[in-house]
Structures are given as structure tokens and as C-alpha cells.
């Protein structure tokens, strides 16, 4: 196990910068997830740590070694790829043993390492098979096994579950999580799936257009997003955003939009007064939009017209039209009977709202 | 009733088409085979008469030029295949995996060579070979064949490597291989079906090649295709002997095709 430190790491293709001055300290044994939409530079960052891409500027350190100019084989890392990248002409056993054989490990030791990995992953019956004789899930397990046998300093995962179907993905997610407990190793995991990011990461790094947007624990990222992008990217259904005007009457600050008015807390009012803006963007998580009338004294109610309902069995999701804006409400009891075009009363708690600057889109705190 | 008639008509047309295709392909080979076992007097009436003989084969195999030509063709095809492939594999891999001006120039060179009609090379090559003193030698015949194969097969080989996901090589780099090691131990074995298919195509195309054989080979290094043509003489064509030689020449190619068919199909499906 070793720490991984990225200092002002830049990647340029010609004059085009795809990764901008990334600074990231990953502690030994930590599991960090890089998440973001396609083209945000997360995979490039991972490939730079692996040594599969040269870095244009900055320093990458694994343990106490600067690895900028080291080839991948000398970085003591192991990597799981999206498409498994198993050696098609080798059996499962040879796939697992390949890395150790390259490092001239004695054959008896290779056997014991392979046995350890196969027992952990339930691969014993598949050792003599070739990759094309395995299912997607089995292939990905072999790819994980290939990492485990090597006992590297760092595990790198490049969207390892993207090629699996939804059910298998959920299962493999749990397996990776369980594996973490048994093989605690510094890990960097790249995904575009926010559920994987939230469930697997000790810390999550949200990226966009080659810039790091926020680094934090999954709960920090969810509850205190640094900006509007992070707020919209993490969470499903995505956060609702409404442009509001701030009005202060008798010392009480409220946010107004068409057919919508919500009272803000004293703390929020103080922050907004300091910020000075008259209009801001309000962010409301769909699960914080509740049906009915407020059950506490910080709640504000409003009415909206039901556009669409989505029955998920465990919850009901409603898309509402509130003064021309669409507001999603989730975690409504699935038994609730709401018909399209009906006018319903909803409420939100002022304390649960997020505030973002209209221009910079940065959270106001 | 109408649908039954239509169905029958469709089946009949299909059967006739298959029969026609069969005749077109198999007919000439059947005529060749029968001619090769008819005496000289019977070649113009091959479907009549009951005179059959293997003397044509005996006579042909007693001609040292024919035996020599078969051996030369075999050696040339095998050497051309080995040497062409060793260049083509590298060339195809480079075109598939790397970018830059060297790759682009190489690609353009191959493209230009492919667009130039094959026959237009032959006369200049004859002059070059004569000037260099390699006319009618193995080297003089090998070099043009290799050039043609590299130009024609580099593209196919590029396609084979394009079909192999590069992440397998990345995994090998991380697993302790150098770039060269990843190529030899991972990319190359994965491309083997394609390489086997190309090897067979390469061997067959050299064995069957006529134009280079006619212009660039002579009495010192006769090749089977040009030797066959020598049965056309001023006094007439010895069809029976020519057919016997053709049947003999067909044999290695037939064997290679039959036994290598599996690899050709698998390789070309890559």
C-alpha cells in the first residue's frame, strides 16, 4: 500500500489541454473515485497514474517515488479495464499468472497466489478455460484476480463495470466493496456512474472539462455540493434548479419565483446578505419536495400541476409544473394517487435548500 | 396453388443457378483433369474414346525443367511468405497502433503502390534486375514478390490489429512487459488466426503468380507457372503435358487450401 500524490498534473494534446493542474493526495489504503461525464479527463488522469499516458506537466508520486518517467511495469500498480483486457489466447490460470511470471516469481509461489485469488473470487472451476468461454461477470472477476495476485501498491480501475448489465453491475459493486475489506490497497476508481462513486469511494473527486470540481466524502459531495455542476451531477433524479429573487420583509428573507415562494432560514439570510446578490439559483433535491402541507415551522408550501408520474414500486416520482419551471419530486409514497394535470400542494423545508450564485454557479455558504 | 407454383419456380431457378455456377467453376478443372489423362491424340475429343493413360505425368516428371520449376516455386513461395509476413506484421501493427509522420508517409507509399497497375512494374523491374545482376535468381524474384505482398497485405494486417483491443497490450505493459514484449506476447498471439490466413493467401499468390515468373525468371530459376506456358511451342501446344503439369501444380495449392481453409475463414472473420 502506498499513497498517490498528484501535483499540478497537466495533460495536453498539442496545444489542447485536457487535464488542468490536478492536485490530489490519495492516502495509503484509501479508495478514491474519479467521477464525471464523458470527456471530463478522469480516464486520462488514471492513465497518467498508470503510465499509459505521458504527463505534460506536474509530478506524480507513488509512495516515495516520483513516477513521471517510469514505464508502467515499474510503477508497481495493477489495473482493471472496462473491456476486461484479458489475454484471449491464455487460460484463466495463465492470465492470472502472467504478471508474476514476468517478474520471475517461482512457480510454487505463483500457484499459491493464484489459488488465494481464485478462492477469494470463486474462480476455481474456471482455471482451465479461455476468456471467450466466460461470461462478462466471470471475465471481470478474472481481471480483478489478475490484480490481486500481484499484490501491487495501487489498484487502478477504469470503468470496470460499464460493460455489465444493470443487475450484474450491482452484484459486482458489492463484490468490489467486499474485496476492498479483504485486500485493503490504495485504489483509484474511474466511473461515470454516480451510484458507483457514492457507494464505493472513501472520497469522491468530481471532474468536468479537465478540472476538478470538488473532492470530498460521498456525503459531503451530496449534501454540500461545491457548485451547480456537482449538485446536478450527483443524485438521481437530478437536483431541481429555480432562478429566484430574494425579498426581505420584516427581517425575514424569502425566495420568490412565479407561483413559488419559500422562506429561508436565518443562517441562509445572513449568508445571502453578505453575498449581496438580489437573485440566486435555488437548488432543491427531489426527495426534499414533499407532498401535502408543511409539518414543521421552517417549511413553505406551493402548488404545482402534475405533468408526469413515474411509478417505481418503491416510490413515486412526480414531475410538476410550477410557474413554467419543472420540479421533480421523489420518494412520494407509491400508494399515492395522483393523476396528470391535477393541481397538488407541495412543500419544501427552507433549511434543506442549496443556494448558487447565478453567474459563477458556485455554492453560496 | 399459385403460391406452390411460385415456390417451385423459385426453387428451380435457385437449383439452375447453383448448377450454372458449379459448371462455370468445376467445368474447366474437370476438362483439365480429363485432358491430363488422355493421350496426345485424344486431347481434342476428350469426352470421346476410352484411352486413358498416366504417361503424361510420367513424361512430365521426367523433364528436369518441370521438377526444378516445382521445387523453385515451392522454395520461392515459402521464402516469400516468411519474409513478407515478417515485414507485413510489423507494418500492419505500426499502421494500427501508432500515429505520426512516419506512419502517414508509409501509409501513403503503400497506397500509391496499390494504385499503380501491377503490370506497369514488371518491365522496369526487368531492367533493374538485369542491371543489378539478379535477373533469373531467387533474390531477383523474391524482392518484387515481397514488395507486392507488403503493399497488399499491410492493410489486411492493419485490420487484424485494429480488431484487437489495445487495452490487452496496456494490461501487459502494467503486468511487466516492455512495448516489444506486449507486442510479441500478447498482440501477436491474438492476431495469429489472421496471420495464418495471410500466410496461406501469401503462399498461394506466389505459387500462382505468372507475370513476374514470365518476365523475371529464365532457364536458371524456372518457376512452375512459366514452365507450364512453355508447352505452347511453334509446332503446336502439347495440351496433355500442359494439363498434367497443371494438375501437378494444382496439388500443393489444393492441399494448402484444404488444410488451411479453417484458418483462412477464421482469420478473415477477425
Brief description of this entry?
The complex is a heterodimer of chains A (365) and B (270). Chain A has helices spanning 42-50, 92-102, 107-121, 136-150, 166-182, 194-200, 218-223, 228-233, 266-275, and strands spanning 4-13, 16-26, 31-35, 57-62, 65-66, 77-80, 154-158, 186-191, 203-208, 211-216, 240-249, 252-257, 260-263, 279-284, 290-291, 299-311, 316-322, 325-332, 343-349, 354-357.
Descriptive overview:
- The complex is a heterodimer of chains A (365) and B (270).
- Chain A has 2 domains: 4-229, Rossmann fold (3-Layer(aba) Sandwich); 240-357, Nucleic acid-binding proteins (OB fold (Dihydrolipoamide Acetyltransferase, E2P), Beta Barrel), CATH 2.40.50.140.
- In chain A, 26% of the residues lie in helices and 35% in strands.
- Chain A is built from 9 helices and 20 strands.
- Chain B is mainly α.
- Chain B has 2 domains: 2-36; 63-269, MetI-like fold, CATH 1.10.3720.
- Chain B has helices at residues 2-36, 55-62, 64-97, 101-115, 119-132, 138-162, 167-174, 179-190, 192-208, 211-216, 224-229, 239-269, and strands at residues 232-233, 236-237.
- In chain B, strands 1-2 form a two-stranded antiparallel ribbon.
- The longest helix of chain B is centred in the first third of the chain and has 35 residues, at 2-36.
- The interface between A and B is medium-sized, with 24 and 17 residues.
SSE diagram, text form:
The complex is a heterodimer of chains A (365) and B (270).
Chain A: E1 4-13, E2 16-26, E3 31-35, H1 42-50, E4 57-62, E5 65-66, E6 77-80, H2 92-102, H3 107-121, H4 136-150, E7 154-158, H5 166-182, E8 186-191, H6 194-200, E9 203-208, E10 211-216, H7 218-223, H8 228-233, E11 240-249, E12 252-257, E13 260-263, H9 266-275, E14 279-284, E15 290-291, E16 299-311, E17 316-322, E18 325-332, E19 343-349, E20 354-357
Parallel strand pairs in A: 3-8, 3-9, 6-7, 7-8
Antiparallel strand pairs in A: 1-2, 1-4, 4-5, 9-10, 11-12, 11-14, 12-13, 14-20, 15-19, 16-17, 16-19, 17-18
Chain B: H1 2-36, H2 55-62, H3 64-97, H4 101-115, H5 119-132, H6 138-162, H7 167-174, H8 179-190, H9 192-208, H10 211-216, H11 224-229, E1 232-233, E2 236-237, H12 239-269
Antiparallel strand pairs in B: 1-2
Helix pairs in contact in B: 1-12, 2-12, 3-6, 3-9, 4-6, 6-9, 7-8, 9-12
Amino acid at each position: 500500500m502506498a499513497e498517490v500524490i498528484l501535483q499540478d498534473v497537466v495533460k495536453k494534446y498539442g496545444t489542447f489541454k485536457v487535464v488542468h493542474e490536478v492536485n490530489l493526495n490519495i492516502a495509503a489504503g484509501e479508495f478514491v473515485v474519479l467521477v464525471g461525464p464523458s470527456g471530463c479527463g478522469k480516464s486520462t488522469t488514471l492513465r497518467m497514474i498508470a503510465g499509459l499516458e505521458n504527463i505534460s506537466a506536474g509530478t506524480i508520486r507513488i509512495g516515495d517515488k516520483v513516477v513521471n518517467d517510469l514505464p508502467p511495469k515499474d510503477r508497481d500498480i495493477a489495473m482493471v479495464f472496462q473491456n476486461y483486457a484479458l489475454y484471449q489466447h491464455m487460460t484463466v490460470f495463465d492470465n492470472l499468472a502472467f504478471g508474476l511470471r514476468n517478474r520471475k516469481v517461482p512457480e510454487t509461489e505463483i500457484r499459491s497466489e493464484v489459488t488465494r485469488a481464485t478462492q477469494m473470487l470463486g474462480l476455481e472451476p474456471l482455471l482451465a478455460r479461455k476468456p471467450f468461454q466466460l461470461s462478462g461477470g466471470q471475465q471481470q472477476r478474472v481481471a480483478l484476480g489478475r490484480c490481486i495476485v500481484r499484490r501491487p501498491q495501487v489498484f487502478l480501475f477504469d470503468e470496470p463495470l460499464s460493460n455489465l448489465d444493470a443487475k450484474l453491475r450491482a452484484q459486482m459493486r458489492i463484490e468490489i466493496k467486499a474485496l476492498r475489506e479483504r485486500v485493503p490497497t490504495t485504489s483509484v476508481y474511474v466511473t461515470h456512474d454516480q451510484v458507483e462513486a457514492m457507494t464505493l469511494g472513501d472520497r469522491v473527486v468530481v471532474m468536468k472539462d479537465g478540472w476538478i470540481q470538488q473532492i470530498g466524502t460521498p456525503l459531503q459531495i451530496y449534501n454540500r455540493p461545491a457548485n451547480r455542476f456537482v449538485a446536478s451531477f450527483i443524485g438521481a433524479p437530478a437536483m431541481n434548479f429555480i432562478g429566484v429573487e430574494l425579498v426581505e420583509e420584516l427581517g425575514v428573507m424569502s425566495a420568490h419565483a412565479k407561483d413559488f415562494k419559500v422562506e429561508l432560514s436565518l443562517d441562509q439570510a445572513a449568508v445571502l446578505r453578505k453575498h449581496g446578490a438580489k437573485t440566486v439559483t435555488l437548488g432543491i433535491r427531489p426527495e426534499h419536495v414533499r407532498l401535502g402541507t408543511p409539518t414543521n415551522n421552517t417549511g413553505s408550501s406551493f402548488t404545482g400541476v402534475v405533468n408526469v408520474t413515474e411509478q417505481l414500486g418503491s416510490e413515486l416520482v412526480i414531475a410538476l409544473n410550477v410557474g413554467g419551471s419543472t420540479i421533480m419530486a421523489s420518494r412520494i409514497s407509491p400508494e399515492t394517487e395522483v393523476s396528470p394535470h391535477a393541481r397538488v400542494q407541495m412543500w419544501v423545508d427552507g433549511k434543506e435548500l442549496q443556494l448558487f450564485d447565478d453567474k459563477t454557479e458556485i455554492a453560496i455558504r | 396453388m399459385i403460391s406452390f407454383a411460385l415456390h417451385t419456380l423459385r426453387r428451380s431457378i435457385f437449383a439452375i443457378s447453383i448448377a450454372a455456377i458449379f459448371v462455370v467453376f468445376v467445368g474447366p478443372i474437370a476438362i483439365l483433369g480429363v485432358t491430363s489423362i488422355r493421350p496426345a491424340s485424344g486431347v481434342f475429343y476428350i469426352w470421346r474414346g476410352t484411352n486413358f493413360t498416366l504417361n503424361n505425368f510420367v513424361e512430365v516428371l521426367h523433364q528436369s525443367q518441370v521438377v526444378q520449376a516445382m521445387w523453385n516455386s515451392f522454395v520461392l513461395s515459402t521464402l516469400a511468405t516468411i519474409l513478407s509476413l515478417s515485414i507485413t506484421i510489423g507494418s500492419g501493427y505500426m499502421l494500427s497502433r501508432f500515429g505520426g509522420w512516419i506512419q502517414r508517409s508509409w501509409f501513403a507509399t503503400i497506397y500509391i503502390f496499390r494504385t499503380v497497375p501491377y503490370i506497369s512494374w514488371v518491365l522496369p523491374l526487368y531492367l533493374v534486375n538485369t542491371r543489378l545482376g539478379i535477373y533469373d535468381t531467387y533474390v531477383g524474384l523474391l524482392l518484387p514478390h515481397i514488395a507486392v505482398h507488403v503493399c497488399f497485405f499491410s492493410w489486411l494486417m492493419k485490420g487484424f490489429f485494429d480488431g484487437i483491443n489495445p487495452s490487452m497490450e496496456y494490461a501487459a505493459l502494467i503486468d511487466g512487459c516492455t512495448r516489444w514484449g506486449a507486442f510479441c506476447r500478447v498482440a501477436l498471439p491474438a492476431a495469429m488466426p489472421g496471420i495464418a490466413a495471410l500466410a496461406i493467401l501469401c503462399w498461394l499468390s506466389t505459387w500462382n503468380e505468372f507475370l513476374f515468373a514470365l518476365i523475371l525468371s529464365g532457364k536458371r530459376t524456372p518457376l512452375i507457372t512459366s514452365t507450364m506456358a512453355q508447352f505452347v511451342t511453334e509446332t503446336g501446344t502439347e495440351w496433355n503435358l500442359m494439363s498434367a503439369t497443371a494438375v501437378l501444380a494444382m496439388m500443393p495449392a489444393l492441399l494448402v487450401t484444404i488444410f488451411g481453409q479453417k484458418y483462412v475463414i477464421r482469420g478473415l472473420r477477425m
